[in-house]
Write a structure and sequence with these properties.
Layout lengths: L22 H16 L11 H18 L1 H11 L8 H6 L6 H23 L2 H24 L2 H6 L1 H42 L2 H4 E4 L2 E4 L3 E3 L2 E2 H33 L15
Antiparallel strand pairs: 1-2, 3-4
Helix pairs in contact: 2-3, 2-8, 3-8, 5-8, 5-10, 6-8
Length: about 270
């Protein structure tokens, strides 16, 4: 599916500045335009956005939990970690610590689903697709200008490069906002899973992998325990799956809403999820 509007939109360019006026006519025009510039109203202040506040708050809270074990353990205890120290999250997927692998799988699915929703919410896929296409066209034109050796042609590319860099940074910053949710949940869920396993008995921690019995709290390589590796194997593919599905769903909704034509076998926004 070809990027909607991306193929037809030109490379971003700066507006051409009008040449400065000279002589008496120029000084008179400058004097006449001075009051107009002085009377130009100020742009309105940025409005408060609760979503931005929540993302910043989660990012700071995640950083605080990382450096303060007391705060981290306090939040984890609210979720519940054992039958004697119950909580809503443990009640939902803890299974009294009798099915640790299932608990880990569900915890990973919940973590990756929430982070995928946040990532999809903060990413403008259409804008990302247009910038990706513009960047490809700009690199080709820039290489041709460099090979030509003409300084004026190379200098003419600079305004385009500056605007393309600004637009690319806007997309990157928007995606970075979603990382605040990922950062917070990464600390919370990994700590919660590790605490649930450490609070379980040795019999509950013992699972069968490949025909061999493994105690999840035992270390596999250096300080890395078995449960950490297994849980990471759950979360990484789930993250890719959820992000791809949500991206595809959003693009389908965008295409249907704007009644755009589809090209069979192609991706609307291009690139990876």
């Amino acid at each position: 599916m070809a990027p909607p509007h991306a193929a037809d939109e030109p490379l971003p360019s700066e507006e051409e500045a009008e040449p400065p006026a000279t002589g008496e006519a120029g000084s008179g025009a400058a004097a006449a335009s001075a009051p107009a510039r002085a009377a130009r109203p100020r742009p309105p202040p940025p409005q408060f956005k609760f979503s931005t506040f929540a993302l910043v708050f989660l990012g700071l809270l995640g950083f605080w939990m990382l450096i303060d074990p007391t705060a981290r353990n306090g939040i984890i205890s609210l979720l519940g970690t054992s039958p004697s120290a119950g909580g809503p999250f443990y009640t939902l997927i803890g299974f009294s610590s009798n099915h640790i692998l299932l608990t880990m799988a569900l915890a990973g699915a919940i973590e990756m689903l929430i982070t995928a929703v946040a990532y999809n919410y903060t990413t403008d896929w259409m804008k990302a697709a247009r910038i990706q296409k513009w960047s490809s066209a700009f690199r080709k034109a820039q290489m041709e200008a460099i090979r030509s050796g003409k300084k004026d042609r190379i200098a003419a590319m600079r305004p385009h490069q500056e605007k393309l860099t600004r637009l690319s940074s806007e997309v990157s910053i928007a995606q970075f906002k979603g990382m605040a949710v990922t950062w917070f949940l990464l600390i919370v869920i990994y700590t919660w899973v590790g605490t649930v396993i450490s609070d379980a008995t040795i019999a509950q921690q013992t699972v069968t992998l490949g025909g061999a019995s493994v105690v999840l709290s035992q270390t596999l390589v250096g300080p890395i325990p078995y449960w950490f590796v297994i849980f990471s194997l759950y979360t990484v593919p789930l993250s890719l799956i959820f992000r791809r599905l949500l991206k595809h769903y959003w693009l389908q909704r965008y295409v249907e809403k704007n009644q755009l034509p589809l090209a069979a076998g192609s991706d609307a926004a291009g690139g990876s999820a």
